[in-house]
Design brief:
The protein is an alpha+beta fold and 528 residues long. It is 68% helix and 13% strand. The protein has 13 helices and nine strands. It is elongated. Residues 502-528 have low confidence and may be disordered.
Amino acid sequence: MSEITLAALAIFGLFFVLLVLAFVYASRYKKVGPNEVLVVSGRGSMTTDTQTGRKTQRSFRIVRGGGTFIWPVVERVDNMSLELMTIDVITPTVYTAQGVPVTVDGVAQVKIGSDDVSIITAAEQFLSKKVDQIKNIALQTLEGHLRGILGTLTVEEIYKDRDKFAQRVQEVSALDLKNMGLVIISFTIKNIHDDQGYLDALGQGRIAEVRRDAAIGQANAARDAAVQAAKARQEGEIAKLQAETRIAEANKSYQVQKAAYDAEVNQKKAEAELAYVLQQNITNQKVKAEEIQIAVVEKTKQIELQQQEVLRRERELEATVRKPAEAEQFRIRTLADAKKYSLETEALGQASATGNLGKGEAEGNKARGLAEADVVKAKGFSEADAQRAQGLAQAEVIQAQGLAEAQAMTKKADAFAQYTQAAILQMLISNLPALASAIAAPLAKTEKIVVISSGGDGQSGTGITKVTKDVADMLTQLPAVVEALTGTNLIEALKNLPGVKGAATPRPQGTPPTEGASAASTPPDQPN
């Protein structure tokens, strides 16, 4: 065989050996979970006591929660469970310290301890036993201690303090179980009963007390419930009445506020309507005043036209009557002068012819007188015609002026007929200053007033105060004077004006007017 073949065989053999070793190692490697332990025996091992710290040589070793290699032939491995074991402890009838037979049922939770000593102890005693056998051994131990403790206690102690009783059983049994490597996790009492009815009799009094207390409690509860129900009804009625009262108060407040709001709204509406009416009256008055003004202007223009027509007629009459009359007068005067001259010349001629100067003069005088009479007569006729024409022209002018004034008065009468009481009152008030001025006119003409005062009655004053009061008293008589002259009560008319009612209250003499009264009695500006 060649060297290559030998080398290949050697490598294959080595690989095979390694594979066999790996298989053997894998088959002999044992693993265990945290709820079990491996007890490996066959070779000795050193263990340390956790309490004393001494090391002890033992023929087995413990493996917890891991794995280990088990040598073939020389070592053996066994599994031991560390899981919890539940044991039902049911004792037969046991006599208590009072001789009363009772039966107690309990539940114990037992497991092998987790420390090395407990595991080693349990391995020494239970390694080859099954779980049921271990539970039976622990059960016998617990039952024995339970019987012994029951014999030292009374039924009342067992019944009333179960936790203390279970704790005592657990404490007494723990030492024996520890010697077997077991640990009691918990022990509880499930049931305590007897066949003689002792526990029932023991509870009768308590049951009666409980029933009595229950009846009393029920009665008290019913009473309290009735009281609380009555209180609740009372509180409910009170709350209902209070709610109704609040609702009524709210309704009252709402009605009051609504009434105030409605009153304010109505007042504003009335003020707006009054302002509208006043403004309308003022506007109407202005319109009427403008119409009257226009009518006055028209009538003025008509009068001016008529006056111009009169002037034209005068000029026409002057041209057609006066001028011809004056011309006729001049013609007649000229004819008279000519006739006079003719007669004088004739008379003088005759006198010269006859030689009788006196007779000629007489005739000349006669002729001169006749000529002058004719001249005067002609002048009288011409002046009479001129005056007649001038009289006719003046009569036509006066007639035209009268017609214009009559038409103007008719327009004024129509305008006055459309005036409201407020407009008439405004006209009266606007003329009051003139009336007051007329009343005080005599005082205005007085250059000097000498006051001689020797006291008074204490009310009308003295000196200049008396004079001032007399003047004020004269002014306070204006309403009476207006009523006497026009039949209109000025104060009542002011009271009846819209928006002035209640403001124009008559004041005593000598009392200064208030701001509201002054504002109420001041008429609005009217166009002139």
